[in-house]
Amino acid sequence: MAKLGHEWILRLGDDALVLAQRLSEWCSHGPALEEDIALSNIALDLLGQARALLTLAGEREGQGRDEDALAYFRTDREFSNALLVEVPNGHFGDTIVRQMLFDQFALLRYEALAGQSAEPEVAAIAAKAVKEVRYHAAHSAQWVVRLGDGTDESHNKVQESLNVLWPYTQELFEDDAVSQACAAAGVLPLNASYHARWKEQVLAILEEATLNCPETSALLTGGREGKHTEHLSYLLAEMQVLQRTYPGAKW
Amino acid sequence: MVTERVARVQRVLEQVMDPELPFLTVTELGMIRGCSELEDGTIEILLTPTYSGCPATDAIQEDIEAALSPMETRFKIRVVHAPTWTTDWISDAAREKMRQNGIAPPEGSSADKAFLLGKAQEVPCPRCNGKDTKLVSPFGSTACKAHYQCNACAEPFDHFKCF
Ligand SMILES: [Zn+2]
HSE (CB half, 13 Å, CA atoms) of A162? Predict the structure, then answer.
């Protein structure tokens, strides 16, 4: 039976790792104690998913790299996360809109992977992640509705968040040689296959939130092949500094 | 086959407490998925994490190692992800202990995902048993808990999420 290439598993892991790092920046800066705890808990779930996925990617790669080697000793060009997750947090509304757009995608992707009997190791990680991401998705959707259908100010702010973030979403549904090979081997669906369902769910949330879906042809992409915004470099600098300075440090 | 050595290890495992719920053992929480003797005589313990990001998983491994070290038995702990841990594996006795310690246990089975479908879930107050409670935040003091408050007695309490 065909096995997923390590590159594809690494993409899943990098999406989770980079977003975990972004969300953890909210720790002790949340707008309310409950939200501070919520964002930190979501970051922790994502970090747990990233650890399992990076470990598996390292094993499949067969070069002796473990989760730490992959997290701390790769350069920005070697990271394959989607650009959406590296976008800086901005204000709480920016973070919540980014989270909603990603959660709806992550849920569909993990649900598809959880059912892959040909890939029991990935399926097991995905099955656990589905349960966690359902809570994340419920939380981010509720907040988008609350802010969008809130005051004029909150409405205008999250509409602007949505306008800025929307061009990043197309990348999530792109396919390339890596995902096409996996699809051809029958181990997972094409990314494009989630798009209609994702859009349907996102539009339902936006409608309840009285927000308009941006009309734009702008498209920001490149993350899967390592072409990132400068924001990722700063994120990695902070995340990697200790291990880069004291390689192998433990505490 | 449960050999005498396996049985001894199991008895020790039944004494290892969860670091975040120190009145419950890892066995009661359903985290030990197997314990058997391999061909070379090593006792293999299968451990499954509750949540992917649960920071207690590392601590639990260390606690198991510490508990077993006086036995001078060769053992190894293997972390397994399938089948996925569910709150359905928490025993009724453990749920009662949660209640006694001020934590509302997961209600029903993970099959009725009332919260996940956006419906309010009935979570009785562990202090006064009143049913009039409200969800303060779906994310509580640890990854596995939500934060509730009782409208009758005003007690703020943790609810172990159905998962
Ligand atoms: Zn009460």
Answer: 24
Instruction: Write out the E strands in chain B.
Output: 32-37, 43-47, 75-79, 103-104, 133-137, 145-150, 156-160
Q: Give the HSE-up count for residue A148: Cα atoms under 13 Å, Cβ half-sphere.
A: 26
pTM metric for this prediction = 0.90
Q: Which of B84, B138, B139 sits opposite A128 (nearest CB)?
A: B84
3-class DSSP assignment, residue A52? helix
The alpha carbon of residue A216 is apart from the nearest alpha carbon of chain B, in Å, by 31
The residue ranges of DSSP E strands in A17-157, in sequence order, are none
Cβ contact B82–A124 (<8 Å) = yes
B-chain residues near A59 (CB < 8 A): none
Q: Is B12 exposed, middle or buried (0-12, 13-18, 19+ CB in 10 A)?
A: middle
From the CA of A30, how many Å to the nearest CA of chain B?
A: 13
Q: What are the tokens at A41? A: 């808990």
Prediction ipTM score: 0.80
Which amino acid would we find at residue A129? A
Second CATH level (architecture) for the domain B4-85: 2-Layer Sandwich (3.30)
Query: Residue A29 is encoded by which pair of tokens?
Result: 């800066």
CA–CA dist A146, A228 (Å, integer): 32
Average pLDDT, chain A: 94
Q: pLDDT-based confidence at A219, cuts 50/70/90?
A: confident
Do the Cβ atoms of A127 and B84 come within 8 Å?
A: yes
| pLDDT tens, chain B, 163 aa long | 678 889 999 999 999 999 988 999 999 999 999 999 999 999 999 999 888 777 788 899 999 999 999 988 899 999 888 888 999 899 889 999 999 999 999 876 654 455 545 555 789 999 999 999 998 888 888 878 889 999 999 999 999 988 8
Domain ranges in chain B are 4-85, 103-160
Q: Which domains does chain A have, with CATH numbers?
A: 7-211+222-245 (1.20.1260.10)
A131 token code pair? 């349960």
Q: Using the 8-state DSSP alphabet, how is residue A212 labeled?
A: P
